[in-house]
Amino acid sequence: MNKYRHYYSFNRILLLAIDITLIAFAFKISNLFRYGDLELTRQYSIFFVLFALVWWIVSGFSNYVFRIDAWLPVGKKYANLINAFVLHAIILATCIVIFNLEELSRLLLLYTYLLTAALIGANRFILQLINKYFTKSDMAYSRFVIVGTGPAAVSLYQTFSNDNPGTKFMGFFDDAPNKKNPYLNLVKGGTADVKEFCLQNGVDEIYYAQPLNNKEEIDDFAEFADNNFLYFRMVPDFSAIVQRDVNMYFYQNIPMISIRREPLELVANRVMKRAFDIAFSLFVILFIFPILLPILAIAIKIDSKGPIFFKQLRPGKKNRLFVCYKFRTMQVNNQTEVQATQHDPRVTRVGRFLRKSNLDEVPQFFNVLLGDMSVVGPRPNLVSQLDHYSKVINKYHMRHFVTPGITGYAQVSGFRGETKELKLMEKRVEYDVKYMENWSFMMDMKIIFLTVWNMIKGEKNAY
């Protein structure tokens, strides 16, 4: 079974860095309490390095030490933390003997351990509150319906009602409601009513808690969810016979099957990605854009008549249109919805260089700052392409499930430029979907690095 991953490497690195900082602070304060001085002795400094190193090792063995999300009970989180400290103490005591650090003050060691445990415990509590805040915010708020009224449906409803304040239950749907269901008054209709209800009430998630023998109905709901930017989950009641080859995760004791992995569904991942977008776009706007603007503005003006910037409506997340900004690379024309081709007469000399080097995309960092785009994501296509390809490519709608990006996985994998053949756009969509299903912070970093590398060497398909 591929477990649904809640936290990725960046989360662990960030929290580990915070822990090491807190450990360093604990050492300083403990030394001040014991000896009245913030300066550590050489032996105590060595002990700090050893202490931090052992904590890093222990946290690597303890998979849940850095779990702050709501999917793990609070008691379990702190139990894992206590277990980690016990293991840490055992290993550290062994190291003290091996490295002959027995001359360290026992009182100093006590201060250090108590303060470290208090600081890291308080840090986890604060992070838990922050996570709870984002869970209650609009960023995490989601409406959901449950298809089915059996035991699995009731259990799911009760669990979400008690433990997930970021969701709002909209109703049950069942053609033959279970008479033993204590919430029959919440049944809104039959399965045929689900689609219309979801569209009219802005539902975000559909949970299918029916027997899994109706493949046609499941496929129909899955396709409807994909085409309308809803999350579709199957919640069968088969806890004792979980298959190893399904993509499953658990909410408390309720097993859930996801049609595909969706890392950016998690609030923590969306917050992390958005925070990086803001920081990165501000850096470019404040330090790089002011240098490029006068140079490129003069070059564009000298090369051809017209404005410096070009703006155009593009479909973004969930097909919402936004104004996309670029440096102008073409002669002023009335064919802006026609894709650029090789040796396109509309492209200026300066424009050809800008396209080849991707510098025409720099103004889009303002789109990132505004929240219309991300640094990395599926590239926003033309409105005309949306109308055409959504009818002929099965999973085309899925690429608009996430915020579009200045650069993307498809582009750094060689699929950019003109799409003369349908299969070329199909490959782009394939890579966009792969990006959505396999997103991680490190994947974004890799795509950014490859984009910069391609800018340096130039791209043959950029015209």
From TrEMBL:
Transmembrane segments: 12-33, 45-66, 78-101, 107-127, 278-300
Lipid bilayer topology: Multi-pass membrane protein
GO cellular component terms, semicolon-separated: membrane
Record's keyword terms, sorted: Membrane, Transferase, Transmembrane, Transmembrane helix
Family listed: Belongs to the bacterial sugar transferase family.
GO molecular function: undecaprenyl-phosphate glucose phosphotransferase activity
EC annotation from Swiss-Prot or TrEMBL: 2.7.8.31
UniProt-listed PANTHER family: COLANIC BIOSYNTHESIS UDP-GLUCOSE LIPID CARRIER TRANSFERASE, UNDECAPRENYL-PHOSPHATE N-ACETYLGALACTOSAMINYL 1-PHOSPHATE TRANSFERASE-RELATED
Annotated Bacterial sugar transferase domain residues: 273-456
One Pfam family matching this protein: CoA_binding_3
Protein location: Membrane
InterPro entries in the cross-refs: Bact_transf, EPS_sugar_tfrase, Undecaprenyl-P_gluc_Ptfrase
Protein name stated in the entry: Undecaprenyl-phosphate glucose phosphotransferase
EC class (word): transferase
